[in-house]
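Lecture 7 notes: from sequence to structure.
We start with the chain below.
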Amino acid sequence: MSYLLRGLAFLAALIASGAASAQEDFPKHFVCDFNQGYAWTYDAGKYKAAPPADLAFEISAIDLDRQTASLILEGKPANGLKIVRAINANHFIEVVNEGFLNLTTIYDRDPATGKYPAVHSRHFGLFGQPVFAQYAGTCVPKS
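Predicted structure tokens for the same chain:
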């Protein structure tokens, strides 16, 4: 039985070191483009879906150890972001002024394209009605 426990401990350490290595290579600045998705609005007791406009922004000053980053919109600094680290992904959370949330998840680099697959979600309200959007796209490192 002790061989099994030592084997599991070794495997856990191996996985953790691989994850740490991937995180160390994670870029400090991304340009993200989201060109697929849907937005939903809630009105008169029903949700209505429609394709949203394309969305682009940058995430900079990424510090995985401190779990912080900065959002750049149209070339201008916007809000600070919090980072939640995951296996094969990092989640960037923005709390906007009104308390609504935006979440961007950037996954590990796709070796075939060199891009980082990403998903962006917006959760907010307009005139007291729920509005949310889900986007799919990619991010590329900015040097």
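Points to note: Residues 27-141 form a domain with the Porin fold (CATH 2.40.160). DSSP finds one helix and nine strands in the chain.
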